[in-house]
Each structure stands twice: as C-alpha cells, then as structure tokens.
Amino acid sequence: MINGKKVMVVLPAYNAAKTLERTIQDVPGGVVDEFLLVDDCSRDDTAEKAKEMGIPVIRHDQNRGYGGNQKTCYKEALRQGADIVIMLHPDYQYTPKLIGAMAWLVASEEFDVVLGSRILGVGALKGGMPLYKYVANRFLTFVENIALGIKLSEYHTGYRAFSRKVLETLPLNENSDDFVFDNQMLAQAAAFDFNIGEISCPTRYFAEASSINFRRSCIYGLGVLRTAAQFRLHKWGWKRNRMFMPGMRGLTGPLSPELLRTIPAAALTEAPAPHP
Question: Could you confirm whether domain 7-240 is CATH 3.20.20.70?
C-alpha cells in the first residue's frame, strides 16, 4: 500500500504470452498489492502463462476489443477495493519500473490521473516509434489540447494510473470497446475536471510488442478527432453527449451475467466488497 491506499495493476492482454514474464519481472517490489490480467480471448497461452506466474486471470470467451478489455479490468479492480489502479500493457512496450512513481503521484492526491508519456524526455522516436505514428501523435495532441482546453504532451499512451474516484465517476460504459476508448477516457477526465499529470516514460517498439496497423491507426485518428469535436460541442451546449454527463452508465453497477460467468466462484466470494 501507499499512504494506506491499495495499489492494483491491471493488465489488458491479447497474445502477450511471450512478453508477460519480462513485464512482471520489472515491476518494482513493495509497491503493488494485487495484479489482475484480463485475457481478451488470446490465440496463444497468455492466460495459462499468467496462472503459472500466480497472476489472477479473467478470460473473455470472445474478443471484446481493447476498450472492452479495460472495462472489465477497471470494474473488477473497483470490486476488489483498489484505491489506485495502474493500467500496464503486458507487451513490455512501457517500462514497469515507473509504477511506483505513478502510484505515488496519485496517492499524493495532487493528481487524479497520471500518464506515462512517450513524448516527454528522450522521446518516442528513440524508442522506435514509426515516424508516421509520431507525426500523427503530435498533430492529434495539438488538436486535442485546443479542443479540451488543457495541455498534455500526448493523449495516446497506454500507460496510465487512476484514482478510485475517477473510475467510479466517469461513465465508462458509454465509451467505445475499440482503441478510441483510451482517448474518450481522457476527454471524460477533462470534462469532469480531474487533475491529469504526466511523467516521462521510455518506450520500446519490437516484434512482440503490440501495435495497431496503418488502417486501424487511421480509424483511431478519426475517432480521436470525433471525440474532440463531441467534447467541444458538449461544453458549448450545442449538442449534449451522454459520454460527458454525470449519472450515465458507469462501472459500479452490478456485474453483467456474461462477466459473472468469466470470474471464478472463489474470487467472487473471497474478494473484499467495493468501497462505499
């Protein structure tokens, strides 16, 4: 625990069997209280590998997408009483060594959301980010900083830490199940006036690291621009959007029957109840 707060690392996984062990080995000791891996119907032995390492696993019986995977991660983390939740990709693209720093920043209560930025510091290009992705990242970030009225070095990192309050407040079930979920979540955090901080994070691009192709990147980029436009129209009162409205579909309601079937009975009876 940090400052009496339970720290949980969630691992949204898809075909991560080759990199999972390296990822977990680099997690600093004495910081993380619980791990959870959500396997989005991988075609390899990701779930089996996690179980061998003693990591609790929820396995989707069908692929629900990157956003759908995160919804399961966060809902279960809240159910297990986590106070700080860190989302770490198990593909070893982001260094797990920063988990402690990110958790402390949230525990300080100065920040509600902390991002591991590939752009700050040595930068993403040195880590192997393709040039077209870097250029797109900079352009989309420029547009979003204007639309959202905040200033971040990037919105597209997959390394994030959240306070419990953020996950309980944001209507995350209004979001996409695809990759744009990440971007929608940050737009929601801005809409609900949560404080967002960043730290510099080295990144690695290599064969086993997950990365979306050019076509999916274009779809994601269009989704980012759409989210920015939806945010601004909502703020101006021209077109209200459920994604940015209090009281819409969040994660703290009852678990769906489909999700209940994926969670071992022992986990349902042994885990602590969510905080009030």
Answer: no
